[in-house]
């Protein structure tokens, strides 16, 4: 994966960074840590500048998240009820859980979107409920961009400081991402087995 990311960054420059960050947020297995880290390395080598790098990375992150937000917006809160009634068992959700999430996003939506930008896997997934529960477009974009900018600054400067050695992190990113996905699947299976609707537990 490192060679592919390197090739696209070197061939496309800031546009390559932008495209990769869009893809990273639409298809989360592509690690932003690697993309922005290599971008930081290229800054240290004098082949890119830090401010345009951060602008391209943040714009790509925001755009990728906006795709999932728009999917949630298009589906909509009211259209969700028939799906929950029919498939809620597999999502381990009841409609009252969805209503509680809706109230939570109404009160703390911007904070949720901002904080989740720093969490592996969840940082993209949070965009879908933000759209479902009709968080405002401008609020979503601003808070997503704010969280993404901070995260991208950390990653890019890590690459800038560590230099070429940053590529060694790719050896750990892959297994770490796999472990995160495996834990999420294991948690889902456990919840699926143990979950009971309130009508059975009352």
What labels describe this entry?
202 residues, mainly alpha, membrane
Description:
With 202 residues, the protein is mainly alpha-helical. The chain has one domain. The chain is 82% helix and 0% strand. The protein contains 10 helices and no strands. The protein is elongated. The termini are far apart. The mean pLDDT is 79. Keywords: Cell membrane, Membrane, Transmembrane, Transmembrane helix. This is DedA family protein. One of its GO terms (cellular component) is plasma membrane.
Total strand count, please?
A: 0
Strand percentage, roughly? under 5%
Number of domains: 1
Percent range for helical residues?
over 70%
General shape: elongated
Order of helices and strands: HHHHHHHHHH
Are there runs of 5+ residues with pLDDT below 50, and where? none
Mind summarizing the main beta sheet?
Answer: none
Distance between the termini: 50 Å
Rounded Rg = 19 Å
Short account of what is shown:
The protein has ten helices and no strands. The longest helix has 26 residues.
Task: Reconstruct the topology from this structure.
Elements: H1 2-26, H2 32-44, H3 50-75, H4 77-91, H5 95-116, H6 122-125, H7 127-132, H8 137-162, H9 170-194, H10 198-201
């Amino acid at each position: 994966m490192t060679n592919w990311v390197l090739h696209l960054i070197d061939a496309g420059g800031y546009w390559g960074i932008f495209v990769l960050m869009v893809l990273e947020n639409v298809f989360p297995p592509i690690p932003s840590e690697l993309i922005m880290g290599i971008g930081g390395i290229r800054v240290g080598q004098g082949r890119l500048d830090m401010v345009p790098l951060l602008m391209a990375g943040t714009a790509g992150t925001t755009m990728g998240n906006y795709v999932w937000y728009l999917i949630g917006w298009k589906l909509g809160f009211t259209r969700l009820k028939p799906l929950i009634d029919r498939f809620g068992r597999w999502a381990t959700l009841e409609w009252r859980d969805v209503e509680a999430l809706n109230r939570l996003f109404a009160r703390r939506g911007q904070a949720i979107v901002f904080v989740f930008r720093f969490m592996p896997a969840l940082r993209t997934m949070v965009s879908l409920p933000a759209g479902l529960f009709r968080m405002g477009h401008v609020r979503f974009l601003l808070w997503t961009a704010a969280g993404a900018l901070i995260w991208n600054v950390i990653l890019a400067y890590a690459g800038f400081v560590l230099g070429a050695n940053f590529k060694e992190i790719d050896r750990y990113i892959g297994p770490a991402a796999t472990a995160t996905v495996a834990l999420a699947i294991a948690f889902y299976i456990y919840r699926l087995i143990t979950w009971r609707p309130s009508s059975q537990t009352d």
